[in-house]
Amino acid sequence: MSFKSFSTIVGTCGGTVLATVPVLGSDDFIRTAILAFIGAVISFSVSFSLKIVVKNVFSAKIKSFFSAWKSKDKNNNQ
After folding, report:
1. pLDDT per residue of the chain (78 residues) written in tens, 0 to 9
2. Membrane-crossing residues (predicted)?
């Protein structure tokens, strides 16, 4: 039977949470919060740095490509 009632789902989730909370100490929550903060800062820093690097590298390559293409086109038309 694939049908599950809302009360069964809520009861299962509530039981899981209530059985897990006493096992975990406050130091686990603090450690998790600190690691999540560090991970978020590192993720943001890497994403921001890569955005700058990719923007500068591709911008320079595209500019050089179009300048070479324009000069080649001018030489062919003359």
Report:
1. 455 788 888 899 999 988 888 887 778 888 989 999 999 999 999 999 999 988 888 777 777 776 766 666 555 555
2. 29-54
CA–CA gap between residue 9 and residue 6 (Å, rounded) = 5
Q: Which amino acid is present at 33?
A: A
Q: CA-to-CA distance for 44 and 67, rounded, in angstroms?
A: 34
Distances 67 to 46, 53, 63 between C-alpha atoms, Å: 31, 21, 6
Ordered DSSP codes for 26-39: HHHHHHHHHHHHHH
Q: What is the CA radius of gyration of the chain?
A: 28
